[in-house]
Specification:
Elements: E1 7-13, H1 17-27, E2 31-35, H2 42-48, E3 53-54, H3 57-62, E4 68-72, H4 75-87, E5 91-95, H5 102-113, E6 120-123, H6 125-128, H7 131-141, E7 148-158, H8 171-174, H9 177-180, H10 182-194, E8 202-209, E9 222-229, E10 232-242, E11 253-258, E12 261-266, E13 279-284, E14 287-291, H11 300-310, H12 318-334, E15 336-337
Parallel strand pairs: 1-2, 1-4, 2-3, 4-5, 5-6, 7-10, 8-15
Antiparallel strand pairs: 7-11, 8-9, 9-10, 11-12, 12-13, 13-14
Length: about 350
């Protein structure tokens, strides 16, 4: 299977990440062959990918010419499509979260066990789509700040309530705030602490709450979790509390503390600092410096297509994807109410 021969189809277009995912794949040489007429963003998708053919999801899954199924529908609906596609002999690339319940993850595990070389990948776009975060993780894993002892991740988001679909407000649809956006932080933590080799992590503490959406009492607008793996402690907070005046959708940060220094990635904005996004700052024995990451290539799609060609694991291991999903599901299940 050559990169250019990979034909893919989109099943479910409810999250804007579908545009990022498809752009990455087509830029890397894959072909947007078809889409299912499902999701609130389908009309915009069709207007963008004009050559994509509209077909029912069942027909897409049964089509042997389509090698990859892309999922960006309502989060709680992704796993069932993934299982069907895997059992039909297709690769699956899902927006995060890939699953919203432990039962769904068990079903994915079963389908993977019989997949005959087919992969289930969840794209954790904070790490793979942001040069600063990607470089920070890579640098820490290379030992540039000594032994990593502490990881601090923050994933604040702008609520933009007027633009949110109905399913957004229902934690049975999203899996809850730690399962949903917290999966980015769990991915980064495990990638740093374990090298993304599939080693599981443990949840020491977790909490979720609603502190600013009184009209949506079931909504979780803040969550935190303390994770431990391979002797590294990770403290993470995700929320929808970003003020409108920030100028971007969130002040996402990753701080990695090592025995010989600190690495900080400021993904989207450097508050009261340098303009633009993707900032990487290093403090070590040589001083404090900013590292230019603008030259780094965002190559997740190229790596993924290469993996599809030879059953490789260049982008990430299958066991890492499972470990991330399992970790946030445990955190969500164990979470106490915020402030208790």
């Amino acid at each position: 299977m050559s990169d250019a021969s990979v034909r893919f189809a989109v099943v479910g277009a409810d999250h804007p990440h579908v545009f990022e995912i498809v752009h990455g794949l087509t830029t890397a040489g894959a072909i947007a062959a078809a889409h299912a007429p499902e999701g609130g963003l389908v009309e915009a998708y069709v207007g963008w990918q004009t050559e994509s053919e509209e077909r029912p999801a069942d027909d897409i899954i049964a089509d042997d010419s389509i090698a990859l199924v892309v999922l960006a529908g309502v989060p709680s609906q992704r796993a069932a499509v993934a299982v069907a596609a895997l059992r039909a002999g297709k690769h699956v690339l899902s927006d995060k979260p890939g699953v919203t319940t432990s039962d769904q993850l068990d079903q994915i595990r079963s389908a993977i066990a019989h997949r005959n070389g087919r992969s289930w990948t969840v794209l954790f776009s904070e790490r793979f789509g942001n040069r600063a975060i990607n470089a920070a993780v890579e640098s820490a894993r290379a030992g540039t700040i000594g032994r990593v002892v502490h990881v601090i991740g923050a994933g604040p988001h702008l609520l933009s309530a007027e633009h949110r679909p109905d399913w957004f407000w229902d934690d049975t649809s999203t899996g809850g705030i730690l399962v949903d956006i917290g999966s980015h932080q769990a991915d980064q933590f495990l990638a740093i602490a374990t090298g993304a080799d599939g080693t599981p992590g443990d949840v020491r503490h977790a909490s979720v709450g609603n502190v600013a959406c009184p009209d949506r009492p079931a909504m979780q607008d803040i969550g935190a979790m303390t994770l431990v793996a391979n002797g590294v402690v990770g403290d993470h907070r995700v929320d929808y509390l970003t003020a409108d005046g920030l100028g971007t959708w969130g002040d996402v940060r990753l701080t990695i503390v090592g025995s010989d220094g600190v690495i900080e990635a400021r993904a989207n904005i450097d508050v009261a600092g340098q303009p633009g996004g993707e900032h990487l700052i290093v403090v070590d024995a040589d001083g404090t410096r900013r590292v230019d990451v603008s030259h780094r290539r965002i190559d997740w799609a190229e790596l993924l297509l290469a993996d599809l060609a030879d059953a490789g694991e260049r982008l990430m291991t299958q066991s890492h994807v499972i470990a991330v999903c399992d970790l946030v599901l445990h955190a969500q299940h164990a979470a106490s109410r915020w402030g208790e």
